[in-house]
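Q: I'm building a small set of examples for a reading group on sequence design. Run inverse folding on the following structure and report the sequence directly after it, with nothing in between.
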């Protein structure tokens, strides 16, 4: 009897991968003890008019919320599953119709209409990332095949997928975010919408300085609104008021709930390997969002489609599909750490006589400069007076160093700040920024405003995740938390 069992195990072990019948049997055995999923209203031919006939469709009831859910499946013969989560809008899963044929050649594809959208309209609840994550987890448990799951989300669906990966660690192998929206602090996003590109060499420098001053003044006004009365919080605390005023207005319900979610406080260290695919010209979810996410995600890569906007899978389907397949199959590697700074170079700017900086410096001094940009700058010291600075992918300061910022503004993305920063009458917009040093790391000496997205403060003993708007008098940022 023992020899027969060993022989049977060897035969099973030697079966080719194509022998999917064993997996099918396992799934059927597991399902014997499960309760059947109730079927919602049957789909009609009219509802499926825009969908290809070769795929499998159903509308079922989701037990977690007792709501109908439209599910599309393709590539049923494959064992690795890819779940597609759409964004805001009336098209819902139709946004993926250019993508599914390429995926279905290698993957089992599951595309859903989130509750309230498309062919999943029905029950009304708070369409928040938290509630949608419960739906996604049920879908994964119900539809996944045996070889693991990849999760792909676009726009609002990208934000929901990011939240899901944080709340349900270990459930997916790889996360792909496509132009994920709603990640930055709302004040930072509104400022992005109102700011023009002043880095235009065809405009006279004097005119660009004037435009920069105007934008800077507008930013001050917008930042004040970010720390004032927030009417959306009225809906957050009163579900009856939300239902009475918003009701079944799906896009408004979901957009409001997305705004209420603070993505800055998620624990990104637990995230799976993540691929970011972004349209460089996206005005809905600016590329700054991708750079900030890459800063906090420990294992991530960014692929940019240079002439694409917010929906690259529809505007550039061939390029997008190639990037998506590569994202699902190729390795994800950590970014290289910057080399040690041994430079003795000193950078100066006075009234914008030098506006662009890159590379290593011992020190940079800015005085009355409104158009300064740092790109991949590594400087041990920075002092600013009456200046406006935009920097990305940079490292500023060193342990024990004090950075002095006076009557100035800094917009920083994907940046490290070491040592301690002192501020007087200044403003900061940080997205994907990490402070390293001893507390207190950020000290306001007089009247400072901060807008923080995906920001961290790391000391030898603790790590603090920050997001939101802050107004400081004479105090440290840590004391305002």
């Amino acid at each position: 009897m023992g020899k027969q069992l060993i022989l049977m195990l060897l035969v099973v072990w030697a079966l080719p991968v194509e022998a999917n019948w064993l997996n099918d049997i396992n799934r059927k055995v597991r399902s014997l003890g499960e309760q059947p999923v109730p079927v919602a209203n049957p789909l009609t031919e009219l509802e499926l008019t825009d969908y290809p006939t070769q795929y499998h469709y159903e509308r079922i009831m989701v037990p977690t919320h007792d709501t109908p859910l439209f599910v599309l499946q393709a590539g049923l013969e494959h064992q690795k599953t890819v779940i597609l989560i759409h964004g805001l809008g009336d098209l819902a899963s139709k946004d993926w119709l250019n993508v599914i044929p390429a995926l279905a050649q290698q993957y089992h594809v599951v595309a859903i209409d989130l509750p309230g959208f498309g062919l999943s309209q029905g029950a009304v609840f708070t369409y928040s990332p938290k509630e949608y994550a419960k739906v996604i987890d049920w879908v994964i448990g119900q539809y996944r095949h045996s070889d693991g799951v990849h999760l792909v989300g676009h726009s609002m669906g990208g934000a929901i997928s990011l939240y899901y990966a944080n709340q349900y660690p270990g459930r997916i192998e790889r996360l792909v975010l496509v132009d994920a929206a709603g990640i930055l602090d709302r004040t930072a996003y509104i400022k992005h919408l109102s700011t023009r590109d002043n880095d235009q060499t065809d405009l006279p420098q004097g005119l660009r300085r004037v435009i920069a001053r105007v934008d800077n003044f507008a930013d001050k006004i917008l930042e004040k609104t970010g720390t004032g009365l927030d009417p959306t919080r009225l809906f957050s605390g009163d579900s009856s008021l939300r239902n009475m005023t918003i009701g079944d207005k799906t896009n408004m319900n979901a957009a409001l709930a997305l705004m209420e979610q603070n993505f800055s406080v998620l624990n990104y260290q637990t995230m799976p390997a993540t691929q970011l695919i972004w349209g460089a010209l996206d005005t809905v979810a600016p590329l700054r969002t991708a750079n900030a996410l890459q800063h906090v995600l420990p294992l991530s890569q960014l692929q940019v489609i240079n002439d694409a906007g917010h929906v690259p899978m529809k505007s550039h389907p061939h390029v997008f599909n190639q990037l998506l397949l590569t994202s699902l199959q190729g390795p994800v590697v950590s970014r290289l750490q910057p080399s040690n700074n041994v430079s003795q170079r000193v950078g100066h700017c006075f009234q914008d006589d030098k506006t662009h900086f890159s590379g290593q410096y011992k020190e940079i001094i800015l005085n009355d400069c409104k158009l300064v940009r740092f790109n991949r700058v590594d400087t041990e010291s920075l002092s600013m007076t009456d200046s406006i600075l935009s920097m990305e992918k940079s490292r500023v300061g060193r342990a024990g160093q004090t950075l002095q910022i006076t009557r100035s503004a800094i917009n920083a993305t994907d940046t490290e700040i070491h040592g301690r920063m002192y501020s007087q009458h200044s403003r900061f917009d940080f997205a994907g920024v990490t402070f390293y040093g001893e507390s207190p790391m950020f000290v306001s000496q007089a009247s400072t405003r901060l807008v923080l997205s995906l920001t961290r403060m790391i000391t030898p003993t603790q790590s603090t995740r920050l997001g939101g708007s802050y107004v400081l008098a004479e105090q440290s940022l840590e004391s305002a938390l």
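Confidence is low (pLDDT under 50) at residues 1-34, 217-223, 227-247.
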